[in-house]
Specification:
alpha+beta; four-stranded antiparallel sheet; 8 strands
C-alpha cells in the first residue's frame, strides 16, 4: 500500500520531471542502483514497503537531517527509479518514482524550510542544472533551496 504522501509528491514531482526532460545529457543511467549494497543501513519502512523492489534501495546522502535513498520500483525496475526521503521517525517519509529519461529523474518538493531535492542521473548536464538553481549535494542527489 502506498503512502498518501507518495501520491501527493507524485503530483508535485511531475512538473519537475517534465520541465527537466527537455534538458540534459543523451545517456541516462543510475549506476548506484546496480551497486552491491547500500553504504548505509536501509530503514525498515523502505525494506518492508511493497512499492519498492526487494533489496534495491541505496543510500545517496543526507540533507537538512533527512536521509535520501534511491530504489527501483516493484513494477518495472529496469527503466524507472524512485527517490525516497526519510526523516527521524518511520512515519516521516515520502517518495516519488519516474522513468529514467532525463538528467532529473524524479524530484521531491516541500519541507521546512521549503526546498526541492532531486534524484539525478549519472553524468548530468551540470551547467544546465546549476543555471536553474540546483546545487550538487552527493552523487545523484541535488538540491534547489527556495
Amino acid at each position: 500500500m502506498m503512502s498518501t504522501k507518495s501520491f501527493r509528491v507524485a503530483g508535485m514531482t511531475l512538473g519537475v520531471v517534465l520541465a527537466a526532460s527537455a534538458c540534459g545529457s543523451t545517456s541516462h543511467d543510475l549506476a548506484v542502483l546496480d551497486s552491491e549494497s547500500s553504504t548505509q543501513p536501509v530503514p525498515e519502512v523502505i525494506q518492508s514497503n511493497e512499492q519498492f523492489a526487494d533489496d534495491s534501495a541505496r543510500y545517496l546522502g543526507e540533507i537538512d537531517s533527512y536521509s535520501y535513498f534511491a530504489a527501483r520500483p516493484a513494477s518495472d525496475g529496469d527503466h524507472e527509479a524512485c527517490l525516497i526521503q526519510v526523516g527521524a521517525t518511520s512515519d516521516d517519509w515520502l517518495s516519488g518514482c519516474s522513468t529514467i529519461q532525463s538528467d532529473i529523474v524524479v524530484g521531491l518538493s516541500g519541507g521546512v524550510p521549503q526546498q526541492e531535492v532531486a534524484l539525478v542521473s549519472d553524468d548530468p548536464s551540470t551547467d544546465t542544472l546549476e543555471e536553474n538553481g540546483w546545487e550538487h549535494q552527493a552523487e545523484n542527489l541535488w538540491q534547489r533551496p527556495n
